[in-house]
Write a structure and sequence with these properties.
Ribosomal Protein L13p, Chain: A; 4-stranded parallel sheet; alpha/beta
Length: 145
Amino acid sequence: MKTFAANPATRERNWLVVDASGKTLGRLATQIADALRGKRKPEYTPHCDVGDFVIVVNAEKIAVTGNKLEEKRYYRHSGYPGGLRSRTLGEMLARRPEEVIRLAVRGMMPRNRLSRQQLTKLKVYAGGDHPHAAQKPEPMEVDAR
């Protein structure tokens, strides 16, 4: 009996849609990261991209616990001296709610080339509609926990 290892010719990718309204940010991000990597499938192979495409809608209605809206900060640096800028989670949700989910999922992925490629399969939209109806996405079951 040989051990099965998935490869790009044998993989099967599905399209999943997730409604983020009322879901906790970190708990949703872990499940999205698992779906992108393919860890929800029995044919999961660590060195091959066997994950699904994930569409996240209603990103602006995400929930967080505690005082994270005022206390959690996102940092970025321009590369110049004194170029450190920061925004709170509340400001990020008001300005770019898609980026909040993208950064949370990115933090749950490994730091390598394969996961950067897998992250391109994540499509995040602030509102309730998306342009991927032709792919016939199926709803992804998300644990409430």
